[in-house]
């Protein structure tokens, strides 16, 4: 709704200190539950991204498709869904709340995973994969926003987002599943994905969302207790206060209601925010860097069969297992990131100055973690050499992602979901296009030089976190979104102070 500008005595609701409805004040057990659910949703999404990779031969026989570009489409069209989903779902989560968006999108993901398992034709399979990818894109950006909601301490938030790195195991596990079950039937690839999604649903439904028929104060504490986004929680609180007031003219509103919520503003400002944020230097540079890394990661799902089946004569299942060291590197990186946040917390306790800067708090890991993408793979070199090269690659890739995405979340706070949506949008485009070029590139350049080319491109992008270290503060000072964020925090602080003053001096 839009509030009449001529209204007098408009009161804006705000959280008080230790407010139990504020997600940042929830108990540790509830935060851990939300954390677990977020990781489960994101893991389903990433697993689905590479699920058909080990079933290419069987899809080729079933649908009479022979070209390498066509056989790459089940993965690529899923990632095209990643392009279209984030610019829609992230703003919707900032308008209507995280929970409803996550529930509806996971339902859509489950339905279209089932549709893939029973697809009658090749075009139908590709359409269902695209729609599955659209709905699967929601956790990729919204989960990061949820973690920013429940952890207001940058250290705890950083540790939570480091755990998102564990979801990178999903794309690693996908080819292993399809490689081993597709000899039975390629459809079992998707049946397994559906079983995993079904096993996730009880966990997703654990959080209560029902309004209980109790007195006003009890409802105040329990209703919508699973929503995490602060502006939406305050919106629901304001509506309850107006409904409970005997005075129909009570002018109590949430800050989000005082904004222009007309359809034109919604479409041109809120829904367009992830695209408009590309004008932010911090966002566009981060997107470029992560897009290249993401594209390289998905190229490997095309390259590993070329290397390990073409040179070392692995079967489909073992070629998928060859990706495991990449996942091991990712897990090691998560451990390093969590250790770094502990080091960061100790520095804050010593009252060191450097943890107070978003740049020095988040970017050092990105500065030291350039991924190693070039390696040698030929028949006279043992297969363990190119396989183990996945460990440093996985470490570098994950540390760059953890560091840069945490930096975006810290810099843009309540706009984090939109900033992360910009990142997901751009890197998904690269993840679609680069794998389609993988076959011709590796055929023309050869395996060592093609991988080295990717390494050189990564090295060129690795300068970005160093630039942010030097100029990041200046860039944030000149960012319209960062300045709007400062104003929002000042208003919230003023409203909280007013509420506390009125509670001490009741009329």
Automatic annotation (TrEMBL):
It is found in: Cell membrane. Keywords: Membrane, Transmembrane, Transmembrane helix. One of its GO terms (cellular component) is plasma membrane. The keyword Zinc does not apply. GO terms for molecular function: transmembrane transporter activity. Residues 31-507 form the Major facilitator superfamily (MFS) profile domain. Pfam families: MFS_1. The chain crosses the membrane at residues 32-51, 71-89, 101-120, 126-151, 163-182, 188-207, 282-301, 321-340, 383-402, 446-469. It is a multi-pass membrane protein. This is Major facilitator superfamily (MFS) profile domain-containing protein.
């Amino acid at each position: 709704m839009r509030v009449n500008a001529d209204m007098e005595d408009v009161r804006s609701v705000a959280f008080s200190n230790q407010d139990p409805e504020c997600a940042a004040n929830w108990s540790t057990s509830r935060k851990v539950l939300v954390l677990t659910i977020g990781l489960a949703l994101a893991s389903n999404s990433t697993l689905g991204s590479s699920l058909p990779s080990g079933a290419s031969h069987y899809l080729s026989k079933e649908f009479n498709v022979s070209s390498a570009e066509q056989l790459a489409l089940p993965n690529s069209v899923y990632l095209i869904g990643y392009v279209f989903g984030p610019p829609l779902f992230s703003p919707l989560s900032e308008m209507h709340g995280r929970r409803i968006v996550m529930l509806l999108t996971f339902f859509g993901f489950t339905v279209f995973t089932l549709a893939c398992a029973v697809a009658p034709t090749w075009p139908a399979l590709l359409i269902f994969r695209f729609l599955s990818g659209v709905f699967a894109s929601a956790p990729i950006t919204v989960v990061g926003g949820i973690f920013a909601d429940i952890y207001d301490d940058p250290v705890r938030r950083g540790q939570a987002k480091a755990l998102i790195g564990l979801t990178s195991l999903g794309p690693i596990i996908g080819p292993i599943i399809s490689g081993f079950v597709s000899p039975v039937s390629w459809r079992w690839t998707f049946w397994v994905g559906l079983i995993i999604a079904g096993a996730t649903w009880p966990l997703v439904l654990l959080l209560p969302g029902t309004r209980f028929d109790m007195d006003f104060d009890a409802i105040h504490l329990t209703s919508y207790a699973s929503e995490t986004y602060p502006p939406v929680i305050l919106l629901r609180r304001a509506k309850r206060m107006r409904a409970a007031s005997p005075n129909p003219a009570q002018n109590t509103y949430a800050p989000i209601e005082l904004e222009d919520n007309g359809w034109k503003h919604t479409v041109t400002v809120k829904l367009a925010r992830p695209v408009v944020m590309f004008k932010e230097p911090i966002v566009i540079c981060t997107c470029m860097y992560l897009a290249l890394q993401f594209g390289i990661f998905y190229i490997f799902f095309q390259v590993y069969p070329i290397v390990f089946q073409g040179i070392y004569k692995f079967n489909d299942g073992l070629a998928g297992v060859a990706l495991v060291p990449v996942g091991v590197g990712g897990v090691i990186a998560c451990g390093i990131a969590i250790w770094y946040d502990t080091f960061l917390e100790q520095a804050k306790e010593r009252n060191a100055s450097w943890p107070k800067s978003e740049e020095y708090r988040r970017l050092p890991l990105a500065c030291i973690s350039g991924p190693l993408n070039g390696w040698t793979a030929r028949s006279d070199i043992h297969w363990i050499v190119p396989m183990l090269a996945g460990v440093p690659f996985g470490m570098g890739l994950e540390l760059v992602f953890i560091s840069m995405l945490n930096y975006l979340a810290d810099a843009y706070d309540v706009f984090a979901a939109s900033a992360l949506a910009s990142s997901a949008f751009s890197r998904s485009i690269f993840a679609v296009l680069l794998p389609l070029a993988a076959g011709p590139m590796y055929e023309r350049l050869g395996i060592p030089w093609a991988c080295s080319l990717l390494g050189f491109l990564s090295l060129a992008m690795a300068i970005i976190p160093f630039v942010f270290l030097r100029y990041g503060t200046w860039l944030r000072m000149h960012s319209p979104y960062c300045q709007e964020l400062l104003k929002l925090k000042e208003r919230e602080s003023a409203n909280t102070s007013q509420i506390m003053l009125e509670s001490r001096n009741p009329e």
